[in-house]
Design a protein that fits this description.
about 290 residues, alpha+beta, 14 strands, about 20% helix, signal
Length: about 290
């Protein structure tokens, strides 16, 4: 907490002024309210003020400051306290994932919204303030959840031309009976504390860039193998690791063939009941020979 207060003090005195004569911290604005609420530990009020700042603020020079303020709010409880409103009973889970995908000669970017619902849904959308579509290259699919006949998972996927930028977003979910739910979502811009990279032809390496937030789950490493049949990628094998990350693929149970190997590192936080994930994925073709 002492570290958070010291950092917040640095943010306060580095913030810009709003007029030539009156320092910003002597005025009563949504930004000063966000600072005050964070200092007082009132995370829902802080988040509400921060959303208002994003809605009103036109000064791009303030964006890094808003980002730092938001990231600091995550130190308390990894974002769980930012919103105390529960999901409606018919929504069981909402996850938003921002993915950076690195393959030889090509980088790709994606945003995904996953919703578990007991109602039939007709639309799931994620837009950037003010009402900007993320991409026209999108798709909505649904799939049943194994072991649960009452819930269906809906996945809205956006293929992007560049990385999903920091800022204010809106999630909207509409059911077939016209029941709806929506929420503001703030996406920050933080350098990943752990990343993956290829160390050799058939090995990868996990690099630790910074200390992890102790209030957040440990980053998850996922290793997945896909084959390519009739123009589609089919998952052959996958496993998640929360510690003791491997650095190579155990091919003993995988039939000999040419595959695509994908290794991802995912950091998770919350925004109240919403799960927010940041994923870095590296992929390449991978040959499993008969003598392995």
């Amino acid at each position: 907490m002492k570290r958070a207060i010291c950092t917040l003090g640095a943010l306060i005195f580095s913030a810009p002024t709003f007029s030539a004569n009156v320092p910003w911290f002597e005025s009563n604005t949504p930004l000063t309210q966000a600072h005050q609420n964070l200092l007082n530990g009132n995370l829902p009020a802080m988040f509400s003020s921060l959303v208002e700042v994003w809605q009103l603020e036109k000064n791009e020079n303030l964006t890094p400051h808003l980002n730092d303020l938001f990231l600091m709010s995550l130190e308390a409880d990894c974002g769980k306290g930012l919103d105390t409103k529960a999901l409606p009973l018919w929504l069981k889970a909402v996850t938003v994932r921002r993915s950076d995908i690195q393959s030889p000669g090509r980088d790709a970017y994606r945003a995904v919204v996953e919703v578990n619902s007991t109602k039939e849904l007709v639309d799931v959308s994620l837009t950037r303030w003010i009402v900007k579509s993320l991409s026209s290259d999108d798709s909505l699919i649904s799939q049943g959840l194994s072991g649960d006949d009452d819930q269906i998972k809906y996945i809205k996927r956006y293929n992007l031309n560049s990385r999903m930028p920091m800022g204010l977003y809106r999630i909207d979910v509409t059911a077939a009976d016209q029941t709806s739910w929506s929420s503001w979502l703030v996406i920050g811009d933080e350098k990943a504390k752990q990343t993956v990279r290829w160390a050799s032809k058939d090995q990868w390496q996990v690099e630790k860039k910074a200390l992890l937030n102790p209030t957040c789950p440990l980053p998850k490493l996922n290793v997945a193998v896909y084959d390519y049949v009739d123009g589609k990628y089919n998952q052959v094998w996958s496993h998640n690791y929360e510690s003791e990350y491997p650095t190579s693929l155990d091919t003993s149970t995988i039939p000999p063939a040419r595959y695509v190997l994908a290794v991802s590192m995912t950091h998770q936080r919350w925004q109240g009941p919403i799960i927010v994930e940041e994923s870095q994925i590296i992929s390449k073709t991978y040959d499993v020979s008969a003598d392995e």
